[in-house]
Structure formats: structure tokens, C-alpha cells
Amino acid sequence: MNKSILLSFIAAILILLPAIAAASTPLIITHSSSMPPLAFINKEGEPDGVLIDFWKEWSEQVEVEIIFKLQPWKEAVQETVNGKADINGGMFYSESRAKKLLYGDYLFHIKGSLFTTPDIIVNDQIADGQSCGVIKADYSKIFMEEHFPYTKLMLFNSAAEMFNAAAEGRVKAFVADYPVAIYLLSELGIANSFKCVKDLYTRNLYPTVGRHNPDLIKRINLDMAAIPQKRKKTIINKWLDFTPDSEEHRKTAAAIVFLALIAMTYIHRNEIRTAFKFVKDKLV
Asked: Where is the Solute-binding protein family 3/N-terminal domain (predicted)?
């Protein structure tokens, strides 16, 4: 092998090394450590939630190793921006975030809602002087600042911190993603202490990457689209297919049926009495 061929071979290897390293390096996917059922650390200390299952499915689809890094939401957003994490598992779109991040195709949509204790009256505005809890760097904070600029906001570092404050009676109103709120209120045993008084927005959840990584977001879109819709629906239904009022609906329906039976019995009491007498006479 002459010198020129050897140099060309070495140059080709040097050019390919970054691509080889990138292909073999696990992708770091970050999100909140306390936003169940979207993403959270479960009792076994493992990442869990609908977004975790989505990205596991994506990883199997593309045969790429991934590592989940769940942390406080503000840090998760910041590490996506500065490249310490490759992918943020899912967030709402906002113009301020779009200046720092690249958004992929949406995964699914969820709604954000206002929850209060039963004693708070809410019309077009939250009661005068009543503060409202939101999570730092969460879309709920952006929404409240834009649509309720005169409402005093109580800022929390994580969903866990905000809901613990609610359980302790330090928060009487808060805005949160509806499935997260229902899940945590139930987990903390305070589901009856708060009511959903208003749905404020319904928005799509998107994967994001830093603006320095356009090729990665294209790859995410392409491979996520290849996952069968049936499989996506199964993942979503596993975590988000719940109706918190269903038990009350069942109780109400049972009560209505019971009252209807009583009413029918009373209305047709003479016919029923005659029928019983007829059967009794036949038996005798």
C-alpha cells in the first residue's frame, strides 16, 4: 500500500469516526421525574409512564439504545436546550420555547385544567386575591401569564412539590395537565378535596431537541410515524384511558334504576297484588 492510499484510508476513517461514535452512543431522553402518568420514577426507582413507553417503543423500532434521565422539569427543558440531553420526551409548543428548541410531529394531545377547593368560586376569573399554583417552566405558567396576568402565581419546581403543598392545604387553586392532576390527587388521597372547575386548553404534546440537532428531529418524525397506530393507541389507553367521574356515574345510574323500580312498583301495586293472589290461589 503506497503512502497516498494509506493517507486516504486514514482520512476516511477520521471522517467516519464521529458518525460511528454517534451511532453507538445511547441517546439521552429527558423529562420530568414527577409528572405521572406522563413520566415519573415509580416505586421500584425506574422510569415509568406513557412517554416512557412511547420512547421504548421508538427505541425498539429504530434499534437504538436510549437512556432515560428524569429530573425536575425546569432542568429537563434546560438540558434539552443546551444539548446535555438529546431529546425531551414531550412538551407543549410555545413561541418562547421554539426560539431555543426544534419541535417534532405531535405524539398525542392532553388538556390543562384549573382545579380548586370546593369553597372557591370561579367565573371568568379566579376569585380576587386568590393565588394559583403552577410549575416553573411548565406551559401552565406561560398560559396563566398570558390569559390571567393579574392572578398571583405560586411557583413550584415540580408537580410533586405543588401537589404536596395542595395536600398540606397551602394551595387552594392550581393549573396542571389534567391526567397528571387526576393521578396525583388520587395517589395523595385528596381527590375529594379538589374539583376540576374549568378546562383551560387542549394542546398537542411534541418531542423536542436542541436547535443544533435538526437531523435528529427528522429521524424521530420518520421512525415515530412507522409505529403502528394500534400500538400507539394501546400505549395511550394503558395510561390515559380513565374517567375519574365514572364511579360517580355508576352510582348515579344505579340510584336512578332503583328509584325507577320503586316508582313502577308503586304505580302498578294493584296489578302486582292481583298477580300474587292469583299465584297463591293456584298453589293452594
From this structure: 26-243
